[in-house]
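protien #1 (seq + structre)
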Amino acid sequence: MAKASSTGVRPTIRMVAELAGVSTATVSYVLSGRRGDGGPGVSDPTAEKVKAAAERLGYRPNQAARAIRTGRTNTVILSLTMLSDPWSLSVIEAVQRAAAPYGITPMILGDADWVKVLGTHNADAVFVDAVREEQRDALRRLAEHGTTLVVFDEELEAEQFDVIRSIAGPGCRMAVEHLLHGHRKIACLTPTTSAGTSGGSRYRAYSEALADAGVPEREDYVGLFDGTTAGAYAAAMRLLSMADRPTAIYATTDFAAVSAVNAAQRLGLVVGKDVDIIGVGNTVEGERMTPSLSTVGPVDFFDKLARLLLQRASGQDAVPNQRLAGGDTGSPLVLDFPWHLFVRESAPHRSAATRLY
């Protein structure tokens, strides 16, 4: 909101225009964050003059008035199940980086009831990273009432909203098979909700890959945890403290794999030598950590997700040179990501001749 100047007069967009020597339309264009979207050209020197004039006068755009006038809030909501997960942090980082040049502010909704929140809060676009079966009708109702949604889900089809799809099963199988090239004592670190014969595809990939390789699945090598970082760390400590400890750990998320690396180092084990650890997700944190984390996941997932979300928030022509391949970007789409294996320091390549029993 605009604030009062030192003279006691609340600065206006017209005052900024007069001080900068430009039109009010130019001021509005520059301060809206829309420069560079292919619209009317505004040179960098002119933009700097406008910003300097606004700063000198203490002018701040009235966001509430702008929302009424344009129908836009200049915000996007990110509903993320677990904020401490490197996957969630990678989403936040990518969206913040993509949104900053366009004056759009990401609002983070962590581990909350997004159905309730979206019933009372508006945003130009919303990303939801998990949809339970009982929430699907609510998702469709929100879309029918005009909420712009981008949803991460392996099963939903693009109806009135976009779907980001990344099928985990085959990629997770690659991770376990990578470990099988050098190990037979392979543990699985996974949340309690995903284990068992009726569990998720990430655990089934482990169980089926062992069976196909003729390696018995050991119940004591399944490290179950409650879905938290602390729980994953405790489960990894138990696995790695066993007398007959595993020589490799397949973690069904990167955050669990990071916890396993921390546990191994706490116990004095050299990751990548005494124990190999691989995760799932291909997160930025996993790539940057020491040792770098071997993992499976899609390529450029986070940047492309951010690109689509910003397209939807800003209008499909508002983000230059960022169109997504695969048809009319104005229609709901399914953005599919194939998975790849990323071999890094925590689980290097091994051959059958160098198996650790």
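ok now protien #2
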Amino acid sequence: MDNLTKQEIKMKLNLVVEKLLHLEEDKEKTVEESETTGYFKRDFGIQEWDWPQGVGLYGITKMLKSKEDEERRQFLLNWYQLNLKNGLPSKNINTTAPLLALIELNESWNNPEFEALTLNWAKWLMESLPRTREGGFQHVTSANGDRQGVRLNDNQIWIDTIFMTVLFLNRMGLKYGRSDWVSESNYQMLIHIKYLCDKKSGLFYHGWNFNGSHNFGKVFWCRGNSWFTVGSLEYIEMFHGTMEEGIKRIITETYRNQVEALTALQSKSGLWNTVLDDPDSYEEVSGSAAIAAGIIKGIRMGILDSKYLECARSAVAGILQNIGADGTVFSVSGGTGMGEDREHYKNILISPMAYGQALVILALCEALDMI
């Protein structure tokens, strides 16, 4: 990429990974847990079993391209073993996320306990996860302050579910030859597109509520959109060319329309605002990184043409400007629940997060393949 060297990207990438491995909660924060600010203790650091850490672990696996990286592999093995020893939280959409990396890692570990965990969890998703009207995966999340509790979010689907759960179920279906799991994953991708994609702009809303039939605040949230930008291509790539063509075309065309809209909203810094179409909202790095990863992946897979290279270059440059000397990724928004208006998203706190580190890892790994 013009003005970006492989050496610089590799250096920053290694810093980001090392920071992720040692990421801890900011002990100086005095903010109380609140959906208004987006501060939840479980979201900080790498230790807890939930979606921020799950995305983080998946980011690390993207670095493990050779067997020489034994230190990081050992870290991951220790992480899973310790969490199983200490006891896992409740099963829900977000606590499914750490299993996506585990499927890949256990290919070499061959740990029967890990395999049983992934199989039992996939079965739970199929048989016990609450469904919305029309059979969507209800976005059940962890309860605030209670590891074994859940928040049902009755009859709601959220865009986050694609990355946190659908990718896992699809990968399991493909690995174990379970066509019913793959079929369910395809359906979940399509129902989320049906109810969350805005037909006029091509962008995605955060959620849909079948109770009242509405998209809440109708906000185009950056990180929410990014779950589809990168998640849709991770999904397609899992099939290695065997995906049913009609379903692939719907997902691909939806992705292209979204990327076209995102390109028009990119700021001069190369990043995107946390409310995509609101320039007064702050620029947010985690969502920008996942968007960048998805665009670069789309170019690599031949789904996008070279006219999007400049957008990708600018995004990577903007991301690199937000990585500290110790590998900390700055300008990352906290955990973001469903909002009824733009102000909800604009008021979420900014703090280093495991998923911020992870999504930057995804973007920089893709960038290295482009140079």
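The beta strands are 141-143, 146-151, 156-158, 207-209, 272-273, 283-284.
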